[in-house]
Every structure is written in C-alpha cells, then in structure tokens.
Amino acid sequence: MSPLHYLCRQDAIGEGEAKGFAPVGDFRRKIIVLRRGGALHAWLDSCPHYSTGTPMAWKTDAYLNGEKTHLACHSHGALFDMETGDCVLGPCLGQRLTRVDIAVSEEGDVFVAAAAQEEKQ
C-alpha cells in the first residue's frame, strides 16, 4: 500500500469552495480539493487543453468560475463539472480533468496516496 500524505482537515473546505495543495509523493502538479453537495472531490491542477497541462487558477485557490458552479481554467475559459471533471464548455470538450483519489480519516483528516495515478488527459 502506498503511504498517505496529509492534505488538510475536511472542514477546511467549505461547501462550494475549492483549494489547491502542493504536489505530494509522485504527483508533479498541485491537487485541487473541492466540496460539492457535501462530498469532497479531488483533481490534478492540469487543464487537458494542452498536452503539457496548464495550471487552472490565475491566483491562489481561484479554481471556480464567478458563480461557483464549475471548475474553471482561467487560461482559456474552459469550464468543468465539479463532480465528474468533464469539460462542459471550451476548447477541451470531450476531455476531462484527472481525478485524484483521496481518503478521509475518522478524525476528519484528508489524505492522498503518495503514488500518483497515471497523469493522462
């Protein structure tokens, strides 16, 4: 089993909020964690529009559109479903963000496994 790396307390991310965390383990990109409908979801901070993957935020933790209804790539305006990671608007339609598996302990700590899932778009 891969070692787990601590990201945050689950209550540090409010409903409809998203936060970025520094890369851990084998991940080369930041990890975005957001809360939608009470559930936490995690994604690599890498827009699939370019093969090299573009970071999505234009400033710290600015991962959502103005209405806070979608994840947004502020480099070119793509919008992504917060729960599925599917691109719903922009030049990367038909593509999706890369999900990151997280675990929440009984104490409410959020962890990610050190070994990165394959980073493919």
Automatic annotation (TrEMBL):
Transmembrane segments: none annotated. GO terms for molecular function: 2 iron, 2 sulfur cluster binding; metal ion binding. Residues 5-112 form the Rieske domain. InterPro entries: Rieske_2Fe-2S, Rieske_2Fe-2S_sf. The lineage of its organism: Bacteria, Pseudomonadati, Pseudomonadota, Alphaproteobacteria, Hyphomicrobiales. It holds the Pfam family Rieske. The keyword Iron applies. It comes from Allorhizobium taibaishanense. The keyword Cell membrane does not apply. This is (2Fe-2S)-binding protein. Keywords: 2Fe-2S, Iron, Iron-sulfur, Metal-binding.
